[in-house]
Fold this protein.
Amino acid sequence: MSVLVLMEDGDVGQQTLSLARVWGNVHTVRMDAITPFAPDALAAVLQRAADDLDARAVFAAGTDRGNEVMGRLAARTGLPFAASVVAADPSGSVTRQRWGGSLLETAAMPGSRLLMSVAPYAIRAGDGPAPTAVDVSRYIDELDPRDRVVQVKEHIDPPGGGVSLAEAKVVVSGGRGVGSKEGFAIIEELAGLLGGRVGCSRVVTSAGWRPHTDQVGQTGTKISPDLYIACGISGATQHMAGCKGAKKILAINADPEAPIMSLADYSVVGDLKEVVPAISAEIRKSR
Ligand SMILES: Cc1cc2nc3c(=O)[nH]c(=O)nc-3n(C[C@H](O)[C@H](O)[C@H](O)COP(=O)(O)OP(=O)(O)OC[C@H]3O[C@@H](n4cnc5c(N)ncnc54)[C@H](O)[C@@H]3O)c2cc1C
């Protein structure tokens, strides 16, 4: 049995391969087969490659781009699509995350060809036979120009540049407790000292204190750093959906009863405006 994978670099690509290998012979089309990124064009290439391979399933990583291409592939083919999958077998039984990962749903997925995106960082990447790369040149030559109408025109690096929020080893986030846009100076300072990235809660992006690209959570970025430092964040379910992949969580909160305090590995009860600069000062002293 053949399956097709829309292949991304990094851990998420390897995790997708691991799930696909359970199904049989894996063939891949790279996400950067078409540059600049054009989701309809990629969907068209996947459609033709899957037809030629008679693929039983098409997989992608559950990234923004992976889900976008798969959504468009589902729309143009009428095939069923399950997002945020964590387990799937060729009988059509699929387990996927719902409600930002708070619920696992197992369901029978009907259809001759199944489309799935794999929840990032939810499954372990394992070894296995190397996949076969599909020669996509013919499909690209024969693309309908309308499939290139939607494409990336410009790339603007997020403030801070460097490593992305999703891949950062340390993330220092601020919530409503930070109090203002200017209040993030101490969060930025600590993140800088730890070589990490700044994150935030949705309250913060809604208030315009930080850009949406910094938001951690169900409707933001899902992160899996070695250390997540949450400052002045209460720990709402929708926020925790984005950071539960963190290996360790340190919460700094004035309220010992805040939900995040029982979800964190370490907690400090106190005013973040005192605690965060104190941590930065200690780090400086130790260097
Ligand atoms: C459909 C949906 C999707 C959502 N998606 C997301 C999402 O992706 N990400 C997200 O974050 N939220 C999301 N939310 C919003 C979420 O429900 C919460 O409203 C939000 O996470 C709360 O942000 P917060 O913790 O910063 O604010 P609050 O809940 O108001 O908490 C502020 C915390 O700061 C503490 N604090 C105050 N002052 C200080 C101080 N000086 N020092 C230390 N601590 C202090 C308080 O004790 C409190 O615990 C979503 C909501 C919905 C309905």
